[in-house]
Amino acid sequence: MATVISNIKRVKVAAKKLKIRPTLSRININEVSAETFASYPADFVAFTQLNNLQLPKISCGNGKALAAMVKHRYKFWIPQDCVDFCKKFNIQSRDPIQLFNKKDQDGFKMGAGRGKYYILYPYKVSNKKAMRVNFKFDGSEEEKNKAIEKIKANILEDYLEPPNEQWQLGHKNPETTDNTSANLVLQPPIQAKYRDRYVFIDTLTKIPTPSTLLKMIGDGKSPFTKSQLRELRDGLTQLDLD
């Protein structure tokens, strides 16, 4: 196992020095066999042990999908491939795509391609997992509980205590001329401070309008990382907006 871990480190160093950027190609389901997900590759197992990551059981759909992805390096899967994979191997799943597109949540860094799912190689720990490692509240247990109670009190005051007659109908998207019920949402008085600056998905969930987002970015207060902004930019350029 020590030798495998050492090899992983050498691959990372070599890739970094040479700036290797392998060409990705789409997986060919016809070339995927049951042997593909009979076990995880030894170097992948070593990587998970080195980074305290939990591997899903190889017998479940999630495990089979993960094994298939890491066995086929530099191959991406599109939604139809996920469906075909489950059909070919009789894997029961209400959402085959989720078996492939949620690996970041398990700690495995995925490539950033719209509708293209693959595990990065050399392997990396995903940001979601890295942020949770050794995450601690910056204070005592008493201070943490006080902070939680304050949040609960704010929710109670802002959303639960206002009488029904004070609630209003607001526009989900303030930058349209749509006055139909599809663009209306019930909101408590506190939402007035977000009016005209945010698009509401529902009563609580909101995202900044384009103009608000651009202002936030200009003020150095972007809620997105540069990588996410590039992903957003690239995704928007692919849309047919004419």
Helix-strand layout with pairing:
Elements: H1 2-18, E1 25-26, H2 42-50, H3 61-71, E2 75-76, H4 79-88, H5 98-101, H6 127-132, H7 141-160, E3 168-171, E4 184-187, E5 198-200, E6 206-208, H8 210-218, H9 226-237
Parallel strand pairs: 1-2
Antiparallel strand pairs: 3-4, 5-6
Question: If you had to describe this structure to a student in words, what would you say it looks like?
Answer:
- The chain is mainly α and 242 residues long.
- The protein folds into two domains: 2-132, no CATH class; 166-237, no CATH class.
- The protein is built from nine helices and six strands, in the order αβααβααααββββαα.
- It has helices at 2-18, 42-50, 61-71, 79-88, 98-101, 127-132, 141-160, 210-218, 226-237; strands at 25-26, 75-76, 168-171, 184-187, 198-200, 206-208.
- The strands form three sheets. Strands 1-2 form a two-stranded parallel sheet. Strands 3-4 form a two-stranded antiparallel sheet. Strands 5-6 form a two-stranded antiparallel sheet.
- α1 packs across α2.
- The longest helix is centred in the middle third of the chain and has 20 residues, at 141-160.
- The radius of gyration is 23 Å and the shape is globular.
- It starts with a helix and ends in a 5-residue tail after the last helix.
- The mean pLDDT is 87.
